[in-house]
Design goal:
Keywords: Activator, Coiled coil, DNA-binding, Transcription, Transcription regulation. This is MerR family transcriptional regulator. Pfam families: MerR_1, TipAS. Residues 247-266 are annotated as: Disordered. It comes from Streptomyces achromogenes. By secondary structure, the protein is mainly α. The chain has two domains: 5-73, Orthogonal Bundle (Multidrug-efflux Transporter Regulator, Chain: A, Domain 2); 110-255, Globin-like (Orthogonal Bundle), CATH 1.10.490.50. The chain has 13 helices and two strands. The chain has helices spanning 5-12, 16-24, 43-57, 62-70, 76-109, 116-123, 130-139, 144-155, 158-180, 188-204, 210-222, 224-228, 240-255; strands spanning 32-33, 39-40. The protein has a two-stranded antiparallel ribbon with strand order 1-2. A hairpin with a 5-residue loop joins β1 and β2. α10 (188-204) packs across α13. The longest helix is centred in the middle third of the chain and has 34 residues, at 76-109. It is rod-shaped and about 100 Å long.
């Protein structure tokens, strides 16, 4: 039994244009003709079409499908195994993207609603990079401290934010002064500023023991977006992120009863 292009298009769920494309690509050409000269698909052609649609559903490109059909030495099973590995990686990537989207929604819901003018009044030049906040949320998703920080941040009022950002601005000015005046990063003044920052986090977000504070400071050097939450780019100096990290590490060593490494300069 033979079938016209229109019939095959209808029951195979593909367009006539697609069938013509497969014909031109040499993938599937109708093997029969009607008395009037119209090209018709045979039962064997339909079997081949099913194979093409199967491979297409799995994401195989047309040239690879053609290679499978043309070369009898090609092992379709090996091609399928390779495609399965690719699909597994893609599934994992999409699952991560879905999780990122979910976390991003949580991050965006955190905090109070402020007008642009109020946001500038409260936060000044400090901006919150959504991509960094989302990555941090993913990184610490299973951390009790992260959950507490997010919950407390969400509960802060506008006045809370105004107060905590005021404290942060005063601390920032002291840090910049210490750096500009050449204070050693493991000196008492710098370590006291590191301790003040640690207590600020504990007071407003979550308990921040010295080890956690060290990990936070490591991000200052590893990711500019993290340091921008502490010092806006317009106020940063070369070496300031590393200086702050060293001060935090020195303060953590002081808490542990250890001694920070001495340094000749910043």
């Amino acid at each position: 039994m033979s079938y016209s292009v229109g019939q095959v298009s209808a029951f195979a769920g593909v367009t006539v244009r697609t069938l013509h494309h497969y014909d031109k690509a040499g993938l599937l050409s109708p093997s029969d003709r009607s008395h009037a000269g119209y090209r018709l698909y045979s039962e064997a052609d339909l079997v081949r079409l099913q194979q093409i649609l199967f491979y297409r559903e799995l994401g195989f490109p047309l040239d690879e499908i053609a290679a499978i059909f043309k070369d009898p030495q090609v092992n379709p099973l090996e091609r399928l195994r390779a495609r399965q590995r690719q699909l597994s990686k893609e599934i994992a990537r999409l699952q991560r993207l879905a999780e990122v989207a979910e976390r991003a929604m949580e991050v965006q819901k955190t905090g109070v609603s402020l007008t642009p003018q109020e946001r500038f009044e409260v936060f000044g030049e400090i901006t919150f990079d959504l991509s960094y906040a989302t990555e941090a949320e993913l990184k610490w998703a299973h951390s009790d401290g992260q959950r507490e920080a997010m919950a407390r941040a969400a509960a802060h009022t506008k006045e809370d934010w105004r107060q905590l950002m005021g404290e942060a601005a005063a601390w920032r000015a002291e840090l910049l002064a210490a750096f500009d005046e050449g204070e050693l990063s493991n000196g008492e003044r710098a370590m006291d500023l590191a301790e003040e920052h640690r207590l600020h986090i504990s007071r407003w977000f979550t308990s921040c023991p010295p080890d956690m504070h060290r990990r936070i400071a490591d991000d200052f050097v590893a990711d500019p977006r993290a340091f921008a939450l502490v010092i806006p780019p317009s106020q940063q100096r070369p070496g300031l992120a590393a200086y702050t990290r060293k001060a935090v590490h020195a303060n953590a060593a002081r808490h542990a009863g250890g001694r920070a490494d001495s340094e000749e300069d910043q």
